[in-house]
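Supplementary Data S3. Sequence and structure tokens for construct A.
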Amino acid sequence: MGMSISKLFAAFLGKKEMRILMVGLDAAGKTTILYKLKLGEIVTTIPTIGFNVETVEYKNISFTVWDVGGQDKIRPLWRHYFQNTQGIIFVVDSNDRERVSEAREELQRMLNEDELRDALLLVFANKQDLPVCYTKKKKKSAQALLTGLSGRLFFKKI
């Protein structure tokens, strides 16, 4: 009942709701990003086994962000979170050049799923403050992640 009233008020006041799926390889920083968005501060995290879900309010939009663990044994479970996803945040560890190909393969596999054909994509290059992150000379490695995504609406800042 309360949820119905909330949705009715949201319809009149123009509040939007969006379902966001945040994925990426293990140790990319997904959970840290989620709680920075939610709490405005960096918190200590442990590897995510399963998922975290939080609602983040920004202006007139309520984002429900699903942060799903990135260990290789958990990745096949990502598909269970695809339904009704309107946006994807794919988090990449800018400090881990050896795994760019693995990240690209996972991103491509996910984007081939029919349920995500209309979802917006944000590739988030995390850990830019670390000394070995992608520099301008090393951006080719990062750009390789985006190979094959033509025709897809996405946002990047590398």
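Construct B, processed identically:
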Amino acid sequence: MIKSFKTKLLLWTGLLFALILIIIGSLVYFTLDEYLYSRVDNRLSAECRELSKVVRFRDGAIALSDSSEWTEVEHAEVGQHAIYLRISTTEGHFLGASKNEEHLTFDIPYMPLAAGELRLTTQKLDSLLFRRADLHVPASARSEAVIITSLMHIGEMDEFLTFIRRAFFLLTPLFILLGLVGIHFLSQRVFRPIARITETAQLMLSSGELGHNIASDNTDEEIRQLIDTLNSLFSKLKRTTEQIRAFSANASHELRTPLTVIRGHVEVALSRERTVEEYKQALELILNESQSMTRIIENLLQLARMDRRKQDLQMELLHLDRLLLSLKEELEKKGREADIALSFAVDIRAEIAGNRDALKLLIFNLVENAIKYNKKGGRVHVSLSQYDSGYKLSVEDTGIGINKEDLQSIFERFYRVESSRSRQAGGSGLGLSIVQWIAAEHKAEIKVDSVPDEGTRIDVIFPVVEYE
């Protein structure tokens, strides 16, 4: 079985080209054959009918009411354009003939016909090819029944058709060969960019570098679009790979930091006898760090569930305002630890269909992001308000802000804004990606407004519950 697409293309195109040539050649040949024979047949038939109008046969005597039929040039000359005429009885007995008939070196064979029948045939007589027409003229009041035969030599016409036929059989293979050669060179040109694509992909696999681009110069529009798409894909893969590498380093750091702090507090607490109050403070610090580490692990688990599409959020009717206020104390504590002032404005009752745990994660990620990327002594304002036909949860900070060119990428997984203060803030780059997924599961809309060095505002707009 042929596996090469190029070979298949060459084979099938060659077969199609050959089939088209055969069909066109056959149509031309048979059309020409029909046209030439119909011209001869029409001429011979016309001669028979014209003669039938003037012939008179009675009591064994033949006569013509118009003798000019015998004296026409084509009935006197011999050769390719001559027409030979013969009149015979219905039994085949000779009655009369045109002047040129006497030059024939053979007898025209008798052909019995039905009354009124016109028969057209091709016969080889004395090694010469003739086309003949035989017309049976029925008996009438003026004449007895006779058979009129007209004969024309068609040797030149047959030779011409034979030449056309031979030329077709000789030239068709040549045209097919030329077509295959042309198709081969065309396929080489078409597949050259594909070979470059394969070469670049193999180079990436062998080197592990995704920064190679495929040249798209002097290529057709369709191939150029494919190359541009692949180059974009390679660039995105490179960026994603770099983000994953950065995430691995950040995640390791994020997990190692609380573990280091926990270990430090434990070692300090165990280094000597402590008071109950000192042990309590150490345990509180350990609890805070373990909660921070738990949050990181939850984000990682949530990401894994999103990837596997196994997360099926169970929705219930809940009050978003109550859920938000239930998290207020814990969020304010996180703000105080980072020297960030948190304020809340919840003035409405907001009943929505949602998943409690997922919404908690959404709120925590939004507020933690606002705290993490804020300035020392900054503020974070969390509000819940009516918005058109829904409810708007807003988290606004006075932090470092986001550049306009980075806004479209902040929800991409592992993405972190490339700035010195952003890098110092740490983080895995997963928070907003998870926020976007949770919002989508709740059919909520996210809007982001940010000014560098002034702050960022993120709005999550939830739809109201529709009762049937």
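The first helix runs from residue 5 to 54. DSSP finds twelve helices and 14 strands in the chain.
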